[in-house]
Amino acid sequence: MRLLHTSDWHLGRAFHRVDLLGAQAEFIAHLVATVRERAVDAVLVSGDVYDRAVPPLAAVELFDDALHRLAGLGVPTVMISGNHDSARRLGVGAGLIDRAGIHLRTEPSGVAAPVVLRDAHGDVALYGLPYLEPALVRDAFGVDKPAHETVLAAAMDRVRADLAGRPPGTRSVVLAHAFVTGGRASDSERDITVGGVAAVPAGVFDGVDYAALGHLHGCQTITERVRYSGSPLAYSFSEAAHRKSMWLVDLGADGAVTAERVDCPVPRPLARIRGRLEDLLAAPDLAAHEDAWVEATLTDPVRPADPMARLTESFPHTLSLLFDPERAPQDPQVSYARRLAGRSDQEIAEDFVAHVRGAGPAEDERAVLRDAFDAVRAGATVREAAR
């Protein structure tokens, strides 16, 4: 069986205030053409269909067009909700849409109810695990600790129990939206650290033939059977080196997996340039970035006059201008930035306690801080889900 694995469409998202709806429509057209030309048997969309819980009307219309075009091909499509989606809104009409071959999986209670397809070698069970926010689903899954690993492990236990009751030789695929250990993040993914450590081990997916993951925006292979498709478009300059693509996965008669990357259309390349303004304007090797969306970081010790106007003369599609002035190593601003670089909110708060009273927090105090940060993040997640 041939599967096309994609995720993280983020319909409605802009790139530094540049409207991407046209590029997203081009991607949808490319996806539909790939399904038709490469004889795809099923499409898998692993969450974050939309960029926010209440998407703009134009994004909803594009999603509606995508559903009609996929249904018109007669190729089954399985979609799950991600942490950016409103599961309730995305799942409206799921029962009716299901009859057209578009299978929306947005309810945690449905993780063990697969879409079952059949080919010449037998059944393939496709399980959709929507994004599982630990604080919201802990009771539904009966876990004591509301953490990403515990709720996802509980969901996979239900998947394996259902699979065990199916005919021998049934192959299995899981769609999930999560941060799996070993994955490389970028700047455009929303933080999902509520409930403790966000990452879950790849071993949580043991027992299924293929795990089609969403959430991380870079296409990557965690194991041969556990992969991220990544987002079809770049949504931050941290993705400048990404090759945007989908996975074309062939599932053999014995469950063996072979995968091929199918490149996505690139509306405009990304470039990150860094240096003093005069050097950037004079560098001949940077002329290749004239047509790229550019992020420029200026290192001039003194901020130059009209830097954006001057940059756009050479790089007309400059979207982001940053300043990181060259400073002497003993400069207090340098040492402060270095102390903060790469540190979590928890670590910064603990450092502040140590600075104020001369000793760091005790273990029970660390737990109070951790609970406070989790409560703030959980509150933001609940408010987003309720919108």
TrEMBL record:
<keyword id="KW-0235">DNA replication</keyword>
<comment type="subunit">
    <text>Heterodimer of SbcC and SbcD.</text>
</comment>
<keyword id="KW-0378">Hydrolase</keyword>
<dbReference type="InterPro" id="IPR026843">
    <property type="entry name" value="SbcD_C"/>
</dbReference>
<feature type="domain" description="Calcineurin-like phosphoesterase">
    <location>
        <begin position="1"/>
        <end position="218"/>
    </location>
</feature>
<dbReference type="Pfam" id="PF12320">
    <property type="entry name" value="SbcD_C"/>
</dbReference>
<dbReference type="InterPro" id="IPR050535">
    <property type="entry name" value="DNA_Repair-Maintenance_Comp"/>
</dbReference>
<dbReference type="InterPro" id="IPR004843">
    <property type="entry name" value="Calcineurin-like_PHP"/>
</dbReference>
<comment type="similarity">
    <text>Belongs to the SbcD family.</text>
</comment>
<dbReference type="GO" id="GO:0004527">
    <property type="term" value="F:exonuclease activity"/>
</dbReference>
<protein>
    <recommendedName>
        <fullName>Nuclease SbcCD subunit D</fullName>
    </recommendedName>
</protein>
<dbReference type="InterPro" id="IPR004593">
    <property type="entry name" value="SbcD"/>
</dbReference>
<comment type="function">
    <text>SbcCD cleaves DNA hairpin structures. These structures can inhibit DNA replication and are intermediates in certain DNA recombination reactions. The complex acts as a 3'-&gt;5' double strand exonuclease that can open hairpins. It also has a 5' single-strand endonuclease activity.</text>
</comment>
<feature type="domain" description="Nuclease SbcCD subunit D C-terminal">
    <location>
        <begin position="267"/>
        <end position="355"/>
    </location>
</feature>
<dbReference type="InterPro" id="IPR029052">
    <property type="entry name" value="Metallo-depent_PP-like"/>
</dbReference>
<dbReference type="InterPro" id="IPR041796">
    <property type="entry name" value="Mre11_N"/>
</dbReference>
<keyword id="KW-0255">Endonuclease</keyword>
<keyword id="KW-0233">DNA recombination</keyword>
<dbReference type="Pfam" id="PF00149">
    <property type="entry name" value="Metallophos"/>
</dbReference>
<keyword id="KW-0540">Nuclease</keyword>
<keyword id="KW-0269">Exonuclease</keyword>
